[in-house]
Design a protein that fits this description.
The chain is of the alpha/beta class. The chain has a five-stranded parallel β-sheet with strand order 2-3-1-4-5, with helices on both faces. The chain is globular. It starts with a strand and ends with a helix.
Length: about 200
């Protein structure tokens, strides 16, 4: 199963609630960061594309510089995604295969679920949704950034409206954490039942 949603929608919170129910969660963002840091071939390709400042002196990703470059240049973002997404997809497939049989189902969390084509690996996708102004405010507070910067990042992703049109399930995140937790538990029961009915 997949979980996605626009920036500030609360998808990471939703995934943490699934984890509390002992559901394995694979984060496409974490996997991408790991590959961009540790895959030598990918590192070389990213430096060629984005410059030597892509990495800090200690070898870690310079996320600030990368974000500034790709969110201001859509063509550059497409080139980075073309390098990173196929490797992330393969690694997610590998880890899903490893987890097969250990849990009724696995959650894959990805901001760019549809853009990267990850939905094709999954039985269903949940889109976490909230009003745009609520999402913008959350990100401004979380990242200590400006409204204009948040809008730029939102414009670089599919709109939540477009994601909802593709999704099998929509989870509203405008209320309390308690309400969200209840809705996650409902989906957990549903997904577990679906998984148990599928032929081995």
């Amino acid at each position: 199963m997949g979980v996605t949603g626009g920036i500030g929608s609360g998808k990471s919170l939703v995934c943490s609630l699934f984890q509390k129910l002992d559901v394995p969660v694979l984060s496409a963002d974490d996997i991408a960061k790991d590959l961009m840091t540790n895959d030598a071939g990918l590192r070389k390709a990213l430096v060629r594309l984005l410059g030597s400042e892509t990495y800090l002196p200690d070898g870690s990703l310079n996320r600030k510089v990368i974000a500034e470059k790709i969110f201001s240049t859509p063509a550059l973002q497409k080139k980075v995604n073309a390098l990173v997404h196929p490797k992330v997809t393969l690694e997610i497939e590998r880890r899903m295969n490893e987890l097969d049989g250990h849990s009724p189902y696995v959650i894959v969390e990805a901001a760019l679920m549809y853009e990267a084509g990850l939905d094709s690996l999954l039985d269903a996708v949940v889109v976490v949704d909230a009003e745009a102004d609520v999402r913008i405010q959350r990100v401004m507070e979380r990242d200590h950034t400006t409204r204009a910067d948040v809008m730029k990042r939102m414009d670089a992703q599919w709109s939540n409206k477009r994601k909802i049109q593709e999704a099998e399930y929509v989870l509203r995140n405008d209320g309390s954490i308690r309400e969200l937790g209840q809705n996650v538990r409902f989906l957990h029961t549903l997904f577990t039942n679906i998984a148990q009915q599928e032929p081995a």
